[in-house]
Queue: 2 jobs
Job 1
Amino acid sequence: MFISDVVIFYMKKILLQGFPSPGPTAATKNIVFLTDALSVLQALKSSKNKDLNDLTSALTSLSQTHTIALQWIPSHCNVFGNETADLLAKKATALQQNDYTTTYSEAKTIIHAQQHEEWLQEHPNHVQNDAYHALTRAEQVVIFRLRTGHNRLNHHLYTKLHIGTSDQCTCQTGGQTVIHVLQHCPMYENLRNLMWPQDTPMAQKLYGSLEDLRRTATFMSETGLSI
Ligand SMILES: [Zn+2]
C-alpha cells in the first residue's frame, strides 16, 4: 500500500507543535484531522503498518487529553482551509523527497533542525557569520545533510534506518560516515588532494567560509555519492 509520506510528515509536524491544554470549552478539547489520504486512515485503522506506529502512539497520547476524530474528506470539496492545504501539499511534492522511511524521533530531530534553520533565516542578523545562507539551495542541502548526519551515506542508512547489509564504505576500510568520506576514504584521495592541497579540518569544511563550504559541496558532487 502506498502511504503518503507528505501527509504523515505534516500530521507529525502538527502533533509535534503541540496543542494547548484543554480549556473549559469544547473548542480546545476536540480536534478533527481532515485528510483526503484515505490510505493513511485505512492503515491507521488496521494498525498493522509499522510506518505508522509512531503516528498511532502520538495520536493515542494526544487522545489522553483531547477528543480526536480523523475524518476523510474528498479533495476539493470547499472545506475551509482545504485549498490552502492542497497548495501546501503541492508545494511539498515539489521538494526533494526522501526515499527512505524516517522514524518518529528522527522526524522530530529533522523538523526541529528545519525550524531552527527557518528561524535563523528569518533573523539574518543572527546568522551573518554563517556562510551557509549565501549558498545555493542545492549546496545548502548537501551542507545541511553533512552537518546533521541525516544523509544517505551507508553509516546512517544502516545504523539508523536499517537499510543495506552493513555501514561499510565500498573501499572496505571503514564505515561510510561523513568524516570518512571527507577526510579519510582512499577512494577520494586524489580528489581530496586536488580540492584541499593542505590538510583541512572537518570544522573548516562544514562551518568555514563561503569558499570552504562551496569547496565541500563541489567535492561531494564530484564523488558521485548520493548524499
Ligand atoms: Zn571509503
Job 2
Amino acid sequence: MSLAEDRALLSARRWRSAFVILAAAAFAAMATAGALAVPYAIAGFAVVATVALVLLRSARGQNRFAAPIADVEPDDDLLRAVVAGLPDPVVALDRDGRVLAVNDRARRLAPALRQGEPVALTLRIPELIEAIARAAAEGEEQRVVYFERVPLDRWYETIVMPVKRAATATSPDFVLMTFHDLTPLRRVEEMRADFVANASHELRTPLAALLGFIETLQGSAREDSKARARFLAIMQEQARRMARLIDDLLSLSRIELNAHRRPDTPVDLAPIVRQVADGLETLARDRGVTVNIDNANAMSVLGDHDELVRVFENLVENALKYGAAGRRVDIKLGQGSSAEGEPEAQVSVRDYGPGIAPEHLPRLTERFYRVDVTESRAQGGTGLGLALVKHILNRHRGRLTIESAPGAGAVFTVHLPTVVKVHPR
Ligand SMILES: Nc1ncnc2c1ncn2[C@@H]1O[C@H](COP(=O)(O)OP(=O)(O)OP(=O)(O)O)[C@@H](O)[C@H]1O
Ligand SMILES: [Mg+2]
C-alpha cells in the first residue's frame, strides 16, 4: 500500500471515530432531555455506528479496487516473519524504496537499515539504488554486483526482485532485495589464477635451461666431450627439479581430493621421525648440522604413514637447508592438549638458524610462498613443501604452528590428535 492510500485510510478512520462520538453525545443528550426514550436512544446510536463502520469498509474496498494492493497490517507482519526466516540477507522495500522488513543477516551487512526509512539513506551504492527504482517501475528483476572496501574487501551480488501480491496486478507491490556474498568465490578464482601462473613460471625456468643446453649441445659444444658431460649433469638436475615439482603438485591435488577422508590406521610417530632423520643424514652431514631426537617414545595417531613421512621430511629438510647456520636441529616428541583440551601428539622441529621475520609467518604455508626465492631455488626448493605439510595435517585433523623471530631460529610444531596414550619403551 502506498503512502497516499495509507493516509486516506487513516483520515477515514478519524472521521468515523469523530462521527461515532458525536452521535453518542447527541443520543445521550436527547435521552437525558427526555426527547427520546433510553431504549430508542441506544438503538438509534447502534444504527448510526453500524452505518459508519460499513461506510468505512466500503471505502477500503473501493480503494483496493482502484489500486490492487492488499491490506497492510496483517500482510506486513507475515512479510516481516518470512524475511526474518530467510537464510540470506534480505530487505523488503515498498515501491518508494522505504524499508518494510529487514532480517538480522541484512542488518549485519548494513547496521543502519531502519524499518520505515528510505533505503537510499543507508545504502550509499548508487547502482543498487537505481536498480531498486528500476525494479519497482518496470517490474523486472535486476542484478547488481558491487565491491566494498570497508571494513574488509568484499564482493556482493544483489538480486532485486519485484513482487506482486496478485498475479493480475499491473505493478509490483514491493521489492525484495537479496544479498549474496561472492567474496569466497572470487578468492578461489584469484587463487586458481595465481596458482596456474606460479606453476607455469616454476616449470618454465628449468624448461628454458634444458632447451638452452640442448641447443648448445647440438651446436657449438657438439664435439666438446667435457662440456657435454658438464651440461648433461646440469640438464639432469633441471629435469629432476621439474619432476619433483610435478610430483609435489600431484601430491597436493591428491591430498586435497581426500581432504574429507580422515586416515584411520594407527601409526607410530617415533619410528617415522627416526626414519626421516636417517634418510636426511647425508644432507645433515653436507651442511655440518647435528640432528638430535629427544624422547622418541611410541606415540600412536590415526594416520597415513607415507603422508606423515612427507610432513617430517619437509620440516627437517627445511631446518637443515635454511637453519644450517645454527649447526644443530632438535626434534622433540611429546604429549600436549589442543585448545579444546583434547590430547594430542606434538612433534617439534627446532633449528638455530637465522629465523623468519614475523610478516612472513602467516604466509609460509601458501603454495609457492618463499621468504627468499633465490635462496630457496638455489636449494632446489619449489615453495610447495609447507603447503603440503598443511594439507596433510588438515586431512589428519591436526595443525602446524610456527614460532620464530629473526636471529632466534625457528620451531615448527606438528599437532596431531592421539588415540593411544604414551607407553614408554
Ligand atoms: N626452518 C626455517 N628457517 C627459515 N626459513 C624457513 C624455514 N623453513 C621454511 N622457511 C622459509 O619458508 C619458505 C617455504 O618453505 P617450503 O618448505 O614451503 O618451500 P621450499 O623449502 O622453498 O621448497 P620445497 O619445500 O618445495 O623444497 C622457504 O622458502 C623458506 O624461505
Ligand atoms: Mg621445504
